[in-house]
Amino acid sequence: MAYFIQFEDKSLGENTSLATLAGVKANFSSLTNIVLTNHASDLHDKYANSGVKTVLYQDENFTVRDLAQTAEFLFNLLKNSNDTYIFEDSKLGNLVAARLAAKLAVPFIPSISNIKVGPNSVSLSREIDSTKVVRLSHLKGKGVISVAINGVVEKAKAEVSEKPMTISAEEPATYVEKRDAGNDLLFAKTVVAGGKGLQDAEGFKPLEQLADKLDASVGATKAVTDVGWLPVSRMIGISGVSVKPDIFYSFGIAGAVQHTTGMDQSKHIIAVNTDPTAPIFKLADYGIVGDANQVIDQLINLV
Ligand SMILES: Cc1cc2nc3c(=O)[nH]c(=O)nc-3n(C[C@H](O)[C@H](O)[C@H](O)COP(=O)(O)OP(=O)(O)OC[C@H]3O[C@@H](n4cnc5c(N)ncnc54)[C@H](O)[C@@H]3O)c2cc1C
From the CA of 123, how far away is ligand 1's center (Å)? Predict the structure, then answer.
């Protein structure tokens, strides 16, 4: 048994396409579609022809942006089942999926592009961007995955029911500072990211000043979060978050593929590095060979 979990959030314009549902259905014969929404009444017709049993969980105040509350609701709903929980491979999908997996204490395997359901396990393939490497995982038992799979939408009647969405009062959602949670990185139009080239934790203070001036979010490499100069929530890359801002400023970052996987879809990339052969320059639209700390100071004075 598997659950596909979707969000239909009118205030965000967030919805999941039926093509993704069809792609999941093609792989899991026994599938229930769970939709968390603030406008269930508009959705009955959409899912009544999807061929997948659908439960619409309705609360007019629901917003998927409240990641903690969304994950909390799903945790309470699913904690006693022993299944595969599937999300769309989107920023919000992955954020909620990761939180749910942590709460359930089960593996989370993101960005799956191919699935084979076997008698005792589910085989999952994930292509790692720009490396031509495919990572194969086998999920035995309960787990959370996110998928980038589309299928052909074939109209077939399906049962659609509506239930209220209620958040458990016993374990209320906890709110954390937006910047510390790292959520702002995902929605930022501008990201200023720093690497080991900023030398030490002190080097990130001017970067944060610059971020305030540019209305940007601060990101970092794993090398930086590993030594505690910034929290792990700021890590961009294969082990952290993927960002796609209009402008990505990269300061003192070498450009390892594990990092660039998480930012190479940015519209414009500006890189500063003392080493003219640094791999980041292959990606950058504009490159400055120079000291990142000095360039940051100059930018703070300029903007
Ligand atoms: C399984 C695995 C997963 C990983 N996941 C991630 C991930 O998700 N995200 C991630 O970021 N990394 C990840 N890494 C680590 C990654 O491989 C790199 O080690 C890391 O990205 C390097 O960070 P960096 O560029 O800050 O540091 P470095 O590699 O140390 O590079 C520092 C750069 O700063 C430049 N520099 C030095 N001084 C200055 C100065 N004054 N001004 C300007 N430039 C200067 C140097 O020329 C150099 O290019 C992962 C590694 C593995 C093995």
Answer: 32
Report the C-alpha gap between 139 and 118 in whole angstroms: 10
Assess whether the C-beta atom of 197 lies below 6 angstroms from ligand 1.
yes
Ligand 1 pocket member 194 (CB < 6 A): no
Which whole number is the average pLDDT over 203-209?
96
Any known ligand binding at 259? yes
Residue 275 Cβ inside 6 Å of ligand 1? The answer reads yes
* DSSP assignment of 160-175: EEEEE----SSS----
Give the residue from 293, 284, 213 showing the smallest Cα distance to 252: 293
Q: Is pLDDT of 15 > 90?
A: no
Answer whether residue 222 shows pLDDT above 70: yes
Indicate the pTM of the whole model: 0.55
Domains (ranges, CATH) in the chain? 2-164 (3.40.50.620), 178-302 (3.40.50.1220)
- CA 247 – CA 60 distance, rounded (Å): 35
Q: Is 205 exposed, middle or buried (0-12, 13-18, 19+ CB in 10 A)?
A: exposed
Query: Among 284, 294, 275, which Cα is nearest to 248's?
Result: 284
CA dist 52 and 111 (Å) reads: 22
Given this model, what pLDDT does residue 131 score? Answer: 60
211 in a known ligand binding site: no
The Cα-based distances of 152 to 75, 107, 196 in angstroms read 30, 29, 46
Ligand 1 in contact with 114 (CB < 6 A)? no
Q: Does ligand 1 lie within 6 Å of residue 238's CB atom?
A: yes
As a whole number, mean pLDDT of residues 255-264 equals 94
Q: Which atom of ligand 1 is nearest to the CA of 221?
A: 11
